[in-house]
Amino acid sequence: MSFASTLPKSSLSTLKGLLPFLAPYKREFLLAGIALLVAAGATLAIPYAFRQMIDLGFGATGSKSIRHVNTYFLALFGVACILAIATAARFYMVSWLGERVTADIRGAVYWHVVRQSPQFFETTQSGEVLSRLTTDTTLIQAVVGTSISMALRNTLLFMGGLVMLFVTSIKLSSIIIVLLAAVVLPIVFFGRRVRKLSRDSQDRIADASAMAGEILNAIPTVQAFTHEGMESGRFTDSVESAFNTAMARIRARSMLTLAAIFLVFGAIVFVLWLGAQAVMGGRMTGGELAQFILYAVIVAGAIGALSEVLGEAQRAAGATERLLELMAVRSPIQSPELAQVLPARSHNGATLVLQEITFHYPSRPLTASLCRLSLVVQPGETVAVVGPSGAGKTTLFQLLLRFYDPQHGLITLDGVDIRQLDLHDLRAAIGIVPQDTVIFSANALENIRYGRIDATDAEVITAAKMAAAHEFIENLPQGYLSFLGERGVRLSGGQRQRIAIARALLKNPPLLLLDEATSALDAESERLVQRALEAAMAGRTTLVIAHRLATVQRADRIVVMENGEIVEVGTHASLIALGGIYANLAALQFHTPG
Hints:
Layout (H helix, E strand, L loop, with lengths): L18 H4 L3 H33 L3 H52 L4 H6 L2 H43 L1 H47 L2 H6 L3 H53 L5 H43 L23 E9 L7 E10 L4 E5 L6 H8 L7 E6 L2 E2 L5 H6 L1 E4 L10 H6 L7 H10 L3 H5 L18 H15 L3 E5 L7 H15 L3 E5 L11 E6 L2 E6 L1 H7 L2 H10 L4
Parallel strand pairs: 3-8, 3-9, 6-7, 7-8
Antiparallel strand pairs: 1-2, 1-4, 4-5, 9-10
Helix pairs in contact: 2-3, 2-5, 2-9, 3-5, 5-6, 5-9, 6-8, 6-9, 8-9, 13-15, 15-16, 17-18
């Protein structure tokens, strides 16, 4: 587990964490409870009807006997009808509740996860989160949709049956209660062990899921290095670990069931033997013994069912604990309670100011990614950021989008501290073309429209034309309606990047961030996109990260970074004349003396 647990791990009290998800459905729970009470009452009425039928029907003679038998059989059938209707209603309501609450939990967990900062995903595997969304919520569904109802039903049957046992025979009931008390200790002992093993089992499943997700996302690399066998072996080992842990849980649950049923029915058989002696001695009627037997069966069955439900509840408690741990994680990046508003957008773009920015990634607290960095970008200005890998260029963009907050320093957009802006307002003012292009499993039209959900088809097509993407999209089998495949596998790298550029242009933000926006393009596409980007930069402030210096030569200013600091600022010509880091980079790329 990668995030710290803040919850108790010793009892079923963890299931209380589900109460906020159950609370909106009080009416449905009430209806299910009514059906549950009626069904339990009908079940408890059956043994009494049998007693009356035996003592007053079979025990009588002549027409009176026939009349009693007919009456009680008719009554028994009526009770069965009520039981059938109430049971069906209970099943429907609790099944609906299980599905509804599970859907709510999945939605809440996903809503919570997608709002976490990148810091969360530095230490948490996506497969682990997916395991919680699927496997863990399925266990909770079983509890809400079945186990809670079964627990309440069998608790009512146990209590009602116990009362009726005492009504039938105080002596026999007292004996059976003493014997049944001995069942509690093994159930409690094994129940705790099952809960611990249930959590371990879910952790192992999550590990296997995380591993599978990671490898499936890297299949081309796995196959290129011919490691299919090795990765299959690793996954098999992980699955076997999950299997062995699950078998330990199953063995513990089997022992729990064995102990409960053996002890319960052993006690009941002994007491029934005493009852048979009482009937033969004339101290009890046959109908009373039959009634006692049926109520004893109901009580024993209820205890056995409760032991099964307890096992399911133990597993669900582990799943709930894991989900609540996930829900308890709070992103360090939050919108302020009283957010400020950006001033009205000017025609020249935004003013960006960075003052003495120092930043360490949470996972690397001893290494400064940015150190005392200061920069002022005027409205409409295009600033290129260059430097060797690891200089802090991409980190700068992540701070501007407020994926992280710097430990020291201030960033303002149009004079407003970005920490005082609502996150959606801040990010709505920024368009980005990332180095690692993300394409969703949708068609080309919807992938570009991701930049602005309310954009019309005509606006999407216009953005595609500006990004030099229109022509290749039109040549796809269904044009803009062509499905691009998971992660855009049906497109080339350059085509994916042009889709991303079109998405950013459609958003039409005052501040545009280009992170290696043309790195995956061939020479012809780069020329087309560069021309489109130049047109798109008009009327907005633009920051460009590029290793290929040919793409930044026409920038208003070039900022050179090294080791998280700005070491040179100027135009292409002035930096070449300076003979510093930029001149060396240019010499390597252009084969010119530096």
